[in-house]
Design goal:
Radius of gyration of chain B: 32 Å
Mean pLDDT of chain B: 80
Number of strands of chain A: 0
Radius of gyration of chain A: 23 Å
Helix content of chain B: 25-40%
Largest interface: A-B, 54 and 57 residues
Mean pLDDT of chain A: 85
Order of helices and strands of chain A: HHHHHHHHHHHHHHHHHH
Number of helices of chain B: 37
Structural class of chain A: mainly alpha
Strand content of chain A: under 5%
Low-confidence stretches of chain A: 1-8, 449-460
Number of strands of chain B: 38
Largest sheet of chain B: 7 strands, mixed
Strand order of the largest sheet of chain B: 5-4-16-15-14-6-7
Helix content of chain A: 55-70%
Largest sheet of chain A: none
Distance between the termini of chain B: 53 Å
Oligomer: heterodimer
Shape of chain B: globular
Structural class of chain B: alpha/beta
Distance between the termini of chain A: 25 Å
């Protein structure tokens, strides 16, 4: 009936009850381990091992093993950093912003997206550390008391980065964990083996589902959501300042903060889709991750993609309009220079291909969405490549122009972080509920209070969940 | 002295070489024992085997000591030296030691048989003896510091000594900076007339040559290491035999020599061996100009120029500002007249005709790329023109126009004009140049003709060819090679190595165990000039003394020492030089010769007290005095010496694949002797900016015609000899010419220089000159070349460089009407600071560079490298863009691709007032000092490289890997102790030589005064032969740098980025001839003629 009344698909199969939700989702953890999971984790871990190799060699030899050089002093490490940070944006956006905006459809994807955020930020965080010439001294970027009375240089965007990224990681972790607490209690209760009970029990912090627990939980969750929301804007804005504070043509642009944030959301949603579409299929989660979820994510991608496109246009327009010889040359060189093909590949991936999302059939098709997401993943990486490399390799003094090409070790480190990311994702889906039990239970028709057919408010859904017997 | 490298003592090295000792013993024994085919003993049982052999040979079985057992004096001596524990006979008497009676066990653990007291006695004695031994390495010869005799050596405080370096025989006076006995840095001797303070890159790199770990470190005979005494002992009977023969069959081969002491020693040698022959040969010699001088009727004469008097200079294939014996002096004189300070003094006008752009040619107001064969036509046309002849019709229009303009200009400035023919120009051109100079009345004013300074000015190549012929014919019994490397250096038609095999005894004295040393019977390590006493004349005859700064690191011998040994009376090089000067130059001195000698050591050269103020006239008063200038007997008739190759024309003739081939000394490696110097290998060539490799340079049009691209390998064949080299396209080169640098293809240069490129000398035949014709075959292979200024998109580069106003330049005409033309571009740049400027109350350091006189000769780069402990990174890393030079010289082309103007712009840290690097460093590792320096705190740097990204001038250098060689002990001695050696992962950059500022500050504070203007000179400034760089306090209104910066020509690089740099540039002012400035294709046009740039489309990479 609700289906008919709302006129569009629900965010959860109406047949689901709180009990089936718990069983199904916890079943992924407690059920038999699929053979593909071992295979997937094995592959991911193998990729991760290339990280160990690349890292060891890096520490042994120095950053000279990479393709960086004198005009192009930043390379893949910074590109990857920005890429991963961007991916890490979807989690917070979905969890916090959509929560505050009361978008129910976030419930089935938020947990997963948050985990993805944490893992992506972890991958991202390693790059700025490792890209320094002497990584063992990176703690000098922290304001710690020392006998020399030396402080970080607070005018440097890299210091802002340190704070922005570490804050983002901390808040995201707290937010994610807070949301997990009731679910961990459910897992504790569901677990059969003592060991698992103990572990889940430890992390469930003694959750009993008491009314004051729910009360505190909700307050904390809301507060954290409120705290995280500005971070969505701040982190990538600060990352973009790494570039726009510098006066390198191609970096020095005021549009960077909003344009980077949009790009980050764009990339984050693409990565969520990249992971979610296969997992939904593998664990038969169609009941919770419905076509409507996919479609909504597709819409977000389309919108952010258009913002990004506008950013590209503005960059080009301003370069021309400024009349500045350096800016004009930079833009012209970006499009038609030594690495022009990278720019046009970027336009293809980030601007042209995602336009298929205007078509509803593509937006609602897992296949087309997945395809578009892949292009965006690549495109966003290319975007960072274009910004970092093409700006640096042809800057002010003609005599100092250079070229850049990545080496095996650049690739190995990047592939290694992808391995780390995937390994963590696969471990995550096997040890924690990948979808939020609490919130999905509240979303199920039975979980709702009687007579509530319209989308319930957040508080109401919480109340419903509270009353639902486990 | 800590600096004598005791750990590398050859004696000690020999200790480890046990098999060779064994070989020694066996070879010393009668041949009969060897023939018995006994089993080769293991090295450690040598002594036992000797005993057994002795027994087997029927020697007395009863013996009392090891001495008796192995009773050869040489063996005894060696055993004691090599294995002290095997020499226990005295304190472990055999009769009290039953084990000794059994030879089979006698050598094992002899010290164990000794008593405790014996051991203690011996230990005590050894220690005291060791102390005595150390005393023997103290310097016993007096050398005198340059400025003032120090009351004592203050640790950490450098001393300066005057010395000299010879290249091609000629001396350049230098001052060497010595830190606690280690020479670390060379600068030009400001009072020496051949330097006046300037140096070249080759001089600057000499300290690395001294500490080169690949230098030969031991005397060896066919690979076996032996002491000097062994050499002397072996030579003694040989020399006696030669003495009996009057020296028949004895040959001595050296490089070019202009040293009185060498000549005196050679005279002694000849006294003993009257029929011995001394041959001088260096590949880069003066045969061609000498022959030309003879043909012109000057006899044995050498020509030098007084550019201080020249208003018009015409260079014919001459790089007189950057190579050749007098170039430092020429550069100084020329640049003083070339630079522009105010509109009232007209600068020199300079025309250059050359086949490939040289550093000198880039300063030309009109530069014409002409092939060597065309050059003869041009020179003839000039002469014809001066003689009033009609202009030649066979020259291209643009060249003909230029020639007639040059003629007009020369005629207008006769008496103040000079025509300079370069050493590599064809002989015909030299003759014509002499005639031109005579026609101009230049001889005696701008052109000085004097007696040659070198010892044997007759044709070197002919003498050398004769030597090789004699050697091949078996007429040479003994050959002594002093400091030369003829196996590598010989022209290709002479098989020196083959001839050497026919010489019974060959001895090589050289810095390296090089190609020649490898083939000679004996090799003796030569002392570096910083380890030697010596003397030499400079290009103008100034007698210059070479003082050692350090005892020979590897117990090398000087050529003087070897000659004295040959003469039969071994003396130290100090004794020799002192005696020669005592007998010669110091003879007529009033007062005691000792104080005169000390003055010579102090000054570095002989300046007689009564010499007139002009160094040209007074410098060469001592022997051999230059003869009175001999004018040409008859004025030249026009067309008298018709060029042989006239009409060869534009080089496009002949077969498509046959081109002119010009062999030229490499700007970094010279003739190959510096091939193992990594500083020079990595030094970007002045024009092409190539490092580490040889390339066949071709013009863009010729490349197009041949169908070759950059890095494509071509095979060049001259006759039956050929070599392969990668192509590099060189805008501004004459069409139809391939320019190939010498100095490559070394087989035994050392770890750095081995196996790079091919030996271009092998293409020449003896007496060929430097301009050949070669067949060119294009291969499909490529060979990677590393250039520090990437060569692609040449059109875009030129266009952008102009659009960005990087090199501001204009004509003198423009300067007179609009002196501040260079500033016009910056007028529109708004700089409105939010924060008021920092007030600099004390010093405010600043630097200014005069682009009008920068030749791009690279001396500053190597000077900076030596001063600041800058590492080399190797070809592969240069290819990746990771060279570490703090100072680079940017080169820009402008105008047509065939005949571009070429500009040089040295760029180091600009020390911006509003430095973009400072704000982005997260840890504050780069900060602003209160004297305006942008300071780099290496210890604090974590290596984010953000500063470099944000530096618009890209002057920062990052230690991507561990570039500094911390593993080679001898290189530790090279480092400047006042400058940190940077570790991996750290950013570095130019500091304005802050260590020198601090030295001066300490001195000034002690004397309670301000630092004087000129007291602090940066390393680059100090080295610059043309005085293009000045450094000082911009707060001082009287300082030189303030005066430069106040000139209307002063401009800032990239004013748009509002960094307010402390380094500024003086715009380049050219002085084109009015008739060519408008129409001439080689003219510079107007300043910033960016938009008319017509650099053709050449995709070169």
């Amino acid at each position: 009936m609700t289906v008919a009344k709302l006129g569009k698909p629900l965010f959860i199969d109406p047949a689901e009850t709180p009990a089936t939700v718990t069983d199904k989702i916890a079943g992924v953890v407690f059920g038999k381990t699929y053979r593909w999971w071992f295979l997937a984790l094995g592959i991911s871990f193998t990729l991760f091992s290339s990280f160990g190799l690349a890292l060891s060699y890096l520490l042994f030899q120095g950053t000279g093993i990479w393709g960086i050089n004198m005009p192009v002093a930043w390379g893949w490490a910074i590109i990857n950093f920005v890429w991963w940070i961007g991916i890490g944006h979807a989690g917070t956006l979905i969890s916090a912003v959509l929560l505050l905006l009361n978008q129910q459809w976030r419930t089935s994807i938020n947990r997963f997206a948050e985990a993805m955020t944490l893992f992506a930020v972890a991958c991202a965080g390693m790059f700025p550390l490792l890209h320094t010439g002497r990584p063992w001294l990176a703690y000098w970027m922290l304001p710690y008391p020392n006998t020399m009375q030396l402080w970080p240089q607070f005018r440097s965007p890299l210091i802002w980065d340190v704070f922005a990224v570490s804050t983002y990681f901390t808040i995201s972790l707290a937010f994610w964990y807070t949301g997990l607490v009731p679910d961990l209690a459910s897992m504790r209760d569901k677990a059969k083996r003592l060991f698992a009970k103990r572990i889940y029990g430890f992390f469930a912090l003694g959750w009993r589902g008491a009314a004051d627990h729910w009360h505190n939980y909700e307050k904390a969750y809301l507060l954290l959501a409120g705290l995280s929301t500005p971070l969505v804007l701040s982190v990538h804005s600060v990352v973009s300042l790494d570039f726009s504070v510098a006066q390198v043509p191609g970096w020095h642009a005021t549009i960077f903060p909003p344009y980077f944030v949009a790009g980050a959301i764009y990339a984050g949603f693409a990565m969520v889709l990249t992971l979610m579409i296969p997992l939904r299929r593998l664990f038969w989660m169609h009941a919770y991750i419905t076509t409507r979820h996919l479609e909504n994510m597709g819409k977000v991608m389309l919108v952010t993609g258009l913002i990004v496109t506008y950013g590209y246009f503005t960059e080009a327009f301003m370069a021309w309009y400024s009349g500045n010889v350096f800016e004009r040359f930079m833009m012209w060189n970006r499009m038609d220079g030594h690495y022009g093909y990278m720019y046009w590949m970027l336009i293809l991936c980030n601007v042209l291909v995602p336009q298929i999302l205007w078509i509803k059939r593509c937006r609602t098709s897992a296949f087309w969405l997945f395809l578009a997401a892949q292009f965006v993943n690549v495109g966003m990486w290319l975007e960072r490549w274009v910004i970092v490399i093409t700006s640096l390799h042809r800057d002010f003094l003609v005599s100092s122009w250079g070229t850049y090409s990545a080496t095996f070790w650049d690739v190995a480190l990047f592939v290694g972080t992808i391995g780390l990311f995937l390994s963590l994702i696969f471990l995550f889906i096997r040890v924690l509920p990948a979808l939020s039990l609490t919130e999905l239970r509240a979303l199920s028709p039975e979980g709702k209070t009687a007579g509530e057919h319209d989308p319930p408010s957040f508080a109401a859904s919480r109340a419903a969940a509270r009353e639902t017997p486990r | 002295m800590n600096g004598n490298g005791g750990s590398l003592d050859p004696g000690e090295r020999a200790t480890m070489d046990q098999p060779s000792i064994e070989g020694e013993i066996l070879s010393d024994r009668p041949r009969a024992t060897e023939d018995r085919g006994h089993q080769r003993p293991a090295p450690r049982t040598t002594l036992r085997v000797v005993g057994e052999e002795r027994v087997a040979a029927g020697a007395p079985v009863v013996w009392r000591s090891l001495d008796e057992l192995a009773d050869t004096p040489g063996f005894r001596e060696r055993v004691v030296r090599e294995f002290p524990r095997w020499a226990p006979a005295e304190w472990s008497p055999p009769e009290s030691n039953p084990a000794e009676s059994n030879p089979a066990e006698s050598n094992n653990d002899a010290p164990d048989d000794a008593g405790r007291r014996d051991f203690l006695k011996l230990a005590g004695a050894s220690i005291s003896l060791a102390g005595l031994a150390a005393c023997t390495r103290q310097p016993t010869e007096l050398i005198v510091p340059y400025v003032e005799q120090p009351p004592e050596l203050v640790p950490g405080k450098p001393l300066y000594y005057a010395t000299a370096m010879t290249i091609g025989g000629y001396a350049t006076g230098l001052l060497a900076e010595s830190h606690m006995g280690r020479p670390t840095k060379l600068t030009g001797n400001p009072r020496h007339p051949a330097s006046l303070g300037g140096t070249s890159a080759l001089h600057q790199a000499a300290t690395l040559g001294l500490y080169d770990p690949d230098r030969s470190s031991s005397i060896s005979r066919r690979g076996r290491i032996l002491p000097w005494e062994a050499f002397v002992a072996e030579m003694a009977p040989v020399l006696q035999a030669f003495e009996a023969l009057g020296g028949d069959g004895l040959r001595i081969l050296s490089g070019t020599v202009a040293s009185p002491s060498f000549e005196a020693m050679m005279a002694e040698v000849r006294q003993r061996f009257p029929r011995a022959v001394w041959v001088q040969y260096e590949p880069i010699n003066e045969d061609v100009p000498r022959r030309a001088a003879r043909r012109a009727g000057l006899g044995d004469a050498s020509v030098r120029y007084d550019l201080a008097r020249a208003q018009v200079v015409v260079a014919l294939e001459s790089d007189f500002l950057a190579s050749g014996p007098g170039h430092l002096r020429y550069a100084r004189d020329f640049s003083r007249r070339k630079r522009v300070r105010d509109a009232s003094v007209e600068p020199t006008r300079f025309y250059a005709f050359e086949c490939a752009p040289s550093p000198t040619g880039t300063l030309a107001d009109h530069r014409a790329p002409v092939s060597p064969s065309e050059l003869e036509v041009v020179a003839q046309a000039l002469l014809d023109g001066l003689g009033g002849g009609a202009p030649r019709q066979d020259l291209p229009d643009w060249l003909g126009a230029m020639v007639s303009t040059v003629v007009d200009d020369l005629r207008a400035q006769a008496g103040q004009a000079v025509v300079i023919a370069g050493d590599q120009a064809p002989e015909e051109v030299h003759v014509l140049a002499l005639r031109l100079n005579q026609a101009l009345g230049a001889i005696g004013s701008t052109v000085l003709v004097g007696r040659p300074q070198i010892a044997a000015p007759a044709g070197q190549e002919a003498a050398f060819a004769e030597l090789v012929r004699e050697m091949a014919a078996g007429q040479v019994d003994a050959l002594f090679v002093l400091g030369a490397n003829p196996v590598y250096e010989a022209p290709g038609d002479l098989d020196f190595a083959g001839a050497l095999a026919k010489v019974d005894l060959s001895v090589h004295l050289g810095l390296y165990l090089d190609e020649t040393g490898d083939l000679c019977d004996w090799h003796l390590p030569q002392a570096h000039f910083l380890e030697s006493w010596g003397d030499a004349r400079s290009f103008d005859g100034t007698l210059t003394v070479i003082q050692p700064l350090i005892l020979p690191l590897y117990q090398g011998k000087t050529d003087l020492q070897l000659l004295s040994a040959l003469a039969g009376r071994e003396r130290s090089d100090h004794e020799i030089v002192r005696a020669v000067w005592e007998r010669g130059m110091l003879q007529g001195v009033n007062g005691d010769s000792e104080s005169a000698w000390r003055r010579v050591l102090h000054d570095g050269f002989w300046s007689p007290p009564d010499a007139s103020s002009s160094l040209y006239d007074g410098g060469a008063v001592a022997e051999p005095a230059p003869p009175a200038i001999e004018l040409l007997a008859t004025p030249p008739a026009p067309g008298d010496a018709a060029p042989a190759a006239a009409g060869a024309g534009a080089g496009a003739g002949a077969g498509a694949s046959e081109l002119e081939l010009a062999l030229r000394p490499d700007p970094s490696l010279y003739d190959g002797r510096f091939a193992n110097n990594a500083w020079l290998q990595e030094l970007p060539k002045p024009i092409t900016k190539l490092t580490w490799d040889q390339a066949a340079l071709v013009s863009p049009r010729t490349a197009e015609r041949l169908g070759v691209n950059n890095t494509q390998v071509v095979r060049l064949s001259v006759g039956r000899r050929s070599l392969e080299a990668p192509v590099w396209i060189n805008p501004g080169q004459a069409d139809g010419v391939i320019v190939l640098p010498l100095g490559y293809g070394r087989g035994r240069a050392g770890k750095v220089g081995n196996g790079i490129g091919s030996n271009a000398l092998a293409l020449r035949s003896s007496g060929d000159g430097w301009n050949l014709r070669a067949k060119v075959a294009v291969t499909s292979r490529t060979y990677p070349l590393s250039s520090t200024q990437q060569h692609f998109d040449i059109e875009i580069q030129a266009e952008q460089a102009a659009a960005r106003h990087l090199v501001q330049h204009g004509t003198w005409e423009r300067f007179r009407t609009e002196p501040d033309f260079a500033k016009r571009h910056a007028e529109h740049v708004p700089v409105a600071p939010l924060i008021p400027d920092w007030p600099y109350e004390g010093y405010a350091w600043g630097l200014s560079i005069d682009l009008s006189v920068c030749t791009g000769c690279n001396a500053c780069i190597v000077s900076c490298q030596a001063e600041n402990n800058i590492p080399v990174v190797g070809k592969e890393q240069v290819g990746r863009g990771r060279e570490m030079h703090w100072l680079r010289i940017d080169r820009y082309y402008e105008g047509e691709l065939d005949r571009p103007s070429i500009h040089h712009q040295p760029v180091m840290c600009q020390h911006c007032e509003l430095a973009p690097c400072e704000v982005v460093c997260p840890v504050g590792a780069t900060v602003h000092g209160d004297e305006g320096l942008n300071e780099m705190v290496y210890n604090r740097c974590v290596g984010t490289r953000y500063c470099s990204n944000n530096c618009p001038y890209k002057v920062r250098r990052f230690n991507f890997l561990r570039f500094n060689d911390a593993r080679t002990p001898v290189l530790e001695m090279l480092r400047n102790p006042d400058v940190t050696v940077r570790s991996r992962g750290v950013m570095e950059k130019c500091t304005y030589c802050v260590q020198r500022i601090n030295w001066a500050r300490i001195e000034a504070k002690r004397e309670n005064r301000r630092i004087r203007d000129g007291e602090v000179k940066t390393a680059c400034q100090e080295a610059c032969p043309t005085e293009a760089i000045v450094f000082g306090d911009v707060n001082d209104p009287q300082s030189e740098v303030t005066r430069w910066k106040a000139l209307p020509l002063d401009y800032v690089l990239l004013p748009e980025v509002a960094t307010k740099p402390r380094t500024t540039y003086l715009a380049k002012v050219t002085h084109p001839h009015p008739s060519l400035a408008l129409a001439g294709p080689a003219g510079h046009g107007s300043a910033g003629s960016a938009h008319e740039a017509q650099i053709g489309q050449v995709e070169t990479r």
